[in-house]
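Anyone up for a design puzzle?
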Protein backbone atom coordinates (compact mmCIF):
# COMPACT_ATOMS: atom_id res chain seq x y z
CA UNK A 1 0.00 0.00 0.00
CA UNK A 2 2.85 2.37 0.85
CA UNK A 3 5.25 3.52 -1.85
CA UNK A 4 8.77 4.77 -1.34
CA UNK A 5 7.86 8.13 -2.86
CA UNK A 6 8.28 10.90 -0.29
CA UNK A 7 5.78 13.75 0.04
CA UNK A 8 8.75 16.06 -0.57
CA UNK A 9 8.70 15.01 -4.24
CA UNK A 10 5.45 16.90 -4.83
CA UNK A 11 4.75 20.60 -4.93
CA UNK A 12 3.20 21.21 -1.48
CA UNK A 13 3.82 24.32 0.64
CA UNK A 14 6.58 24.03 3.23
CA UNK A 15 4.08 24.35 6.08
CA UNK A 16 2.07 21.38 4.77
CA UNK A 17 5.31 19.41 4.20
CA UNK A 18 6.55 20.09 7.73
CA UNK A 19 3.22 19.15 9.22
CA UNK A 20 3.17 15.85 7.31
CA UNK A 21 6.59 15.06 8.75
CA UNK A 22 5.42 15.87 12.27
CA UNK A 23 2.41 13.59 11.76
CA UNK A 24 4.73 10.77 10.73
CA UNK A 25 3.53 10.83 7.11
CA UNK A 26 6.80 10.41 5.22
CA UNK A 27 6.01 8.43 2.10
CA UNK A 28 2.85 8.45 0.04
CA UNK A 29 0.49 5.52 -0.25
CA UNK A 30 -0.13 4.19 -3.78
CA UNK A 31 -3.30 6.18 -4.32
CA UNK A 32 -1.65 9.36 -3.01
CA UNK A 33 1.45 8.91 -5.19
CA UNK A 34 -0.71 8.43 -8.27
CA UNK A 35 -3.40 11.03 -7.69
CA UNK A 36 -1.57 13.91 -5.98
CA UNK A 37 0.57 15.00 -8.96
CA UNK A 38 -2.63 15.23 -11.08
CA UNK A 39 -4.58 16.92 -8.29
CA UNK A 40 -1.85 19.51 -7.68
CA UNK A 41 -1.77 20.14 -11.43
CA UNK A 42 -5.42 21.23 -11.10
CA UNK A 43 -7.03 18.34 -12.94
CA UNK A 44 -10.34 16.68 -12.15
CA UNK A 45 -9.43 13.30 -10.67
CA UNK A 46 -11.27 10.05 -9.97
CA UNK A 47 -9.42 7.90 -7.45
CA UNK A 48 -10.46 4.36 -6.82
CA UNK A 49 -8.83 2.41 -4.04
CA UNK A 50 -9.85 0.13 -1.23
CA UNK A 51 -10.75 1.27 2.28
CA UNK A 52 -7.70 2.29 4.28
CA UNK A 53 -5.62 3.21 1.23
CA UNK A 54 -5.26 6.87 2.26
CA UNK A 55 -7.80 8.54 -0.01
CA UNK A 56 -8.67 11.25 2.54
CA UNK A 57 -5.20 12.79 2.61
CA UNK A 58 -5.10 12.74 -1.21
CA UNK A 59 -8.10 15.05 -1.59
CA UNK A 60 -7.44 16.94 1.67
CA UNK A 61 -3.95 17.99 0.54
CA UNK A 62 -5.44 18.94 -2.83
CA UNK A 63 -8.07 21.23 -1.35
CA UNK A 64 -5.60 22.73 1.15
CA UNK A 65 -3.24 23.43 -1.75
CA UNK A 66 -6.01 25.45 -3.46
CA UNK A 67 -7.01 27.34 -0.31
CA UNK A 68 -6.38 31.03 0.36
CA UNK A 69 -6.50 31.34 4.15
CA UNK A 70 -6.89 35.10 4.13
CA UNK A 71 -10.09 34.80 2.15
CA UNK A 72 -12.67 33.79 4.76
CA UNK A 73 -15.18 32.18 2.40
CA UNK A 74 -16.15 28.56 1.74
CA UNK A 75 -13.56 27.48 -0.83
CA UNK A 76 -13.78 23.70 -0.51
CA UNK A 77 -16.78 21.43 -0.14
CA UNK A 78 -16.47 17.73 0.73
CA UNK A 79 -19.62 15.62 0.48
CA UNK A 80 -19.72 12.28 2.32
CA UNK A 81 -22.48 9.66 2.55
CA UNK A 82 -22.76 9.53 6.35
CA UNK A 83 -22.22 11.70 9.39
CA UNK A 84 -19.59 9.31 10.76
CA UNK A 85 -17.54 9.53 7.56
CA UNK A 86 -17.91 13.30 7.41
CA UNK A 87 -16.68 13.57 11.01
CA UNK A 88 -13.66 11.37 10.21
CA UNK A 89 -12.83 13.44 7.13
CA UNK A 90 -13.11 16.69 9.11
CA UNK A 91 -10.71 15.29 11.75
CA UNK A 92 -8.18 14.33 9.06
CA UNK A 93 -8.42 17.70 7.30
CA UNK A 94 -7.93 19.56 10.62
CA UNK A 95 -4.89 17.37 11.35
CA UNK A 96 -3.34 18.06 7.93
CA UNK A 97 -4.19 21.79 8.19
CA UNK A 98 -2.73 22.15 11.69
CA UNK A 99 0.29 24.07 10.40
CA UNK A 100 -1.92 26.64 8.69
CA UNK A 101 -3.30 28.96 11.31
CA UNK A 102 -6.95 29.89 11.55
CA UNK A 103 -8.35 27.43 9.06
CA UNK A 104 -11.98 26.85 9.84
CA UNK A 105 -13.52 23.48 8.93
CA UNK A 106 -17.26 23.20 9.44
CA UNK A 107 -19.28 19.97 9.42
CA UNK A 108 -22.89 20.07 8.23
CA UNK A 109 -24.49 16.67 8.74
CA UNK A 110 -27.99 15.33 9.01
CA UNK A 111 -28.89 14.02 12.47
CA UNK A 112 -27.04 16.88 14.13
CA UNK A 113 -29.04 19.77 15.65
CA UNK A 114 -29.76 22.70 13.32
CA UNK A 115 -29.21 25.58 15.76
CA UNK A 116 -25.43 25.28 16.16
CA UNK A 117 -25.00 24.71 12.39
CA UNK A 118 -26.90 27.90 11.62
CA UNK A 119 -24.77 29.77 14.15
CA UNK A 120 -21.54 28.39 12.68
CA UNK A 121 -22.66 29.29 9.16
CA UNK A 122 -23.15 32.88 10.29
CA UNK A 123 -19.54 32.91 11.52
CA UNK A 124 -18.24 31.43 8.26
CA UNK A 125 -15.72 28.75 7.26
CA UNK A 126 -13.03 27.94 4.70
CA UNK A 127 -13.99 24.29 4.29
CA UNK A 128 -17.37 22.56 4.63
CA UNK A 129 -17.65 18.80 5.09
CA UNK A 130 -21.11 17.28 5.24
CA UNK A 131 -23.83 14.97 4.05
CA UNK A 132 -25.92 15.73 0.93
CA UNK A 133 -29.38 16.24 2.47
CA UNK A 134 -28.27 18.69 5.13
CA UNK A 135 -26.02 20.68 2.79
CA UNK A 136 -28.91 20.94 0.32
CA UNK A 137 -31.24 22.11 3.07
CA UNK A 138 -28.87 24.94 4.11
CA UNK A 139 -28.51 25.92 0.44
CA UNK A 140 -32.26 26.06 -0.12
CA UNK A 141 -32.68 28.24 2.97
CA UNK A 142 -29.97 30.58 1.70
CA UNK A 143 -27.68 29.99 4.69
CA UNK A 144 -24.75 28.55 2.76
CA UNK A 145 -23.01 30.26 -0.13
CA UNK A 146 -20.85 28.17 -2.44
CA UNK A 147 -19.99 30.96 -4.91
CA UNK A 148 -16.30 30.78 -4.06
CA UNK A 149 -15.83 27.02 -4.00
CA UNK A 150 -12.71 26.07 -5.96
CA UNK A 151 -12.56 22.39 -4.92
CA UNK A 152 -15.55 20.05 -4.88
CA UNK A 153 -15.00 16.57 -3.43
CA UNK A 154 -17.24 13.52 -3.52
CA UNK A 155 -15.99 10.96 -1.03
CA UNK A 156 -17.24 7.35 -1.08
CA UNK A 157 -19.18 8.07 -4.25
CA UNK A 158 -20.28 4.42 -4.57
CA UNK A 159 -22.04 4.54 -1.20
CA UNK A 160 -23.58 7.88 -2.06
CA UNK A 161 -25.25 6.31 -5.11
CA UNK A 162 -26.43 3.30 -3.06
CA UNK A 163 -28.11 5.76 -0.72
CA UNK A 164 -29.88 7.59 -3.56
CA UNK A 165 -28.18 10.96 -3.19
CA UNK A 166 -27.93 11.78 -6.93
CA UNK A 167 -30.55 14.52 -6.91
CA UNK A 168 -29.18 16.22 -3.81
CA UNK A 169 -25.69 16.11 -5.33
CA UNK A 170 -26.87 17.69 -8.57
CA UNK A 171 -28.59 20.44 -6.61
CA UNK A 172 -25.41 21.08 -4.58
CA UNK A 173 -23.23 21.19 -7.68
CA UNK A 174 -25.60 23.66 -9.34
CA UNK A 175 -24.74 26.12 -6.53
CA UNK A 176 -20.98 25.84 -7.15
CA UNK A 177 -19.10 27.92 -9.71
CA UNK A 178 -18.61 26.36 -13.16
CA UNK A 179 -14.90 26.90 -12.80
CA UNK A 180 -13.79 24.48 -10.08
CA UNK A 181 -11.72 21.37 -9.53
CA UNK A 182 -13.68 18.16 -8.95
CA UNK A 183 -12.29 15.18 -7.07
CA UNK A 184 -14.18 11.91 -6.72
CA UNK A 185 -13.01 9.06 -4.50
CA UNK A 186 -14.56 5.65 -4.19
CA UNK A 187 -13.72 2.12 -3.10
CA UNK A 188 -15.64 0.58 -6.02
CA UNK A 189 -16.65 1.94 -9.40
CA UNK A 190 -20.15 0.77 -10.34
CA UNK A 191 -21.41 1.58 -13.86
CA UNK A 192 -23.90 4.03 -12.36
CA UNK A 193 -21.08 6.36 -11.32
CA UNK A 194 -20.44 7.29 -14.96
CA UNK A 195 -23.62 9.34 -15.10
CA UNK A 196 -22.67 11.32 -12.01
CA UNK A 197 -19.16 11.82 -13.36
CA UNK A 198 -20.59 13.04 -16.67
CA UNK A 199 -22.70 15.65 -14.91
CA UNK A 200 -20.12 16.85 -12.43
CA UNK A 201 -16.60 16.38 -13.74
CA UNK A 202 -14.60 17.74 -16.63
CA UNK A 203 -12.26 15.39 -18.52
CA UNK A 204 -11.31 13.56 -15.35
CA UNK A 205 -8.13 11.53 -15.01
CA UNK A 206 -9.10 8.12 -13.64
CA UNK A 207 -6.71 6.35 -11.33
CA UNK A 208 -7.41 2.89 -10.04
CA UNK A 209 -5.17 1.26 -7.50
CA UNK A 210 -5.62 -2.47 -7.69
CA UNK A 211 -4.58 -4.78 -4.93
CA UNK A 212 -1.85 -7.25 -5.86
CA UNK A 213 -2.38 -10.75 -4.55
P1 LIG B 1 -9.51 5.57 2.93
O1 LIG B 1 -10.29 6.83 2.86
O2 LIG B 1 -8.84 5.23 1.63
O3 LIG B 1 -10.34 4.42 3.44
P2 LIG B 1 -8.04 6.89 5.00
O4 LIG B 1 -7.83 8.15 4.27
O5 LIG B 1 -9.07 6.89 6.06
O6 LIG B 1 -8.32 5.72 3.98
O7 LIG B 1 -6.60 6.46 5.59
C1 LIG B 1 -6.40 5.33 6.41
C2 LIG B 1 -5.36 5.62 7.51
O8 LIG B 1 -4.07 5.81 6.95
C3 LIG B 1 -5.65 6.87 8.31
O9 LIG B 1 -5.51 6.57 9.67
C4 LIG B 1 -4.58 7.87 7.88
O10 LIG B 1 -4.26 8.75 8.92
C5 LIG B 1 -3.44 6.97 7.48
N1 LIG B 1 -2.58 7.53 6.40
C6 LIG B 1 -3.00 8.02 5.21
N2 LIG B 1 -1.97 8.37 4.43
C7 LIG B 1 -0.85 8.10 5.12
C8 LIG B 1 0.57 8.24 4.84
N3 LIG B 1 1.00 8.71 3.68
N4 LIG B 1 1.44 7.85 5.79
C9 LIG B 1 0.99 7.33 6.96
N5 LIG B 1 -0.31 7.17 7.30
C10 LIG B 1 -1.23 7.54 6.40
MG1 LIG C 1 -12.29 7.30 2.97
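Challenge accepted. My sequence:
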Amino acid sequence: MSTSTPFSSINLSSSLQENLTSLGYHTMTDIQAQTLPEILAGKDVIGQGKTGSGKTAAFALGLLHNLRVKRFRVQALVVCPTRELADQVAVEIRKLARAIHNIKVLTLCGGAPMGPQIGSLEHGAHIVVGTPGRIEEHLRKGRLCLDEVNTFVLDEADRMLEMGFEEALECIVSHCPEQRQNLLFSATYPAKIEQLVGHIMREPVKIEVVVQH
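A detail worth pointing out: The longest strand covers residues 181-186.
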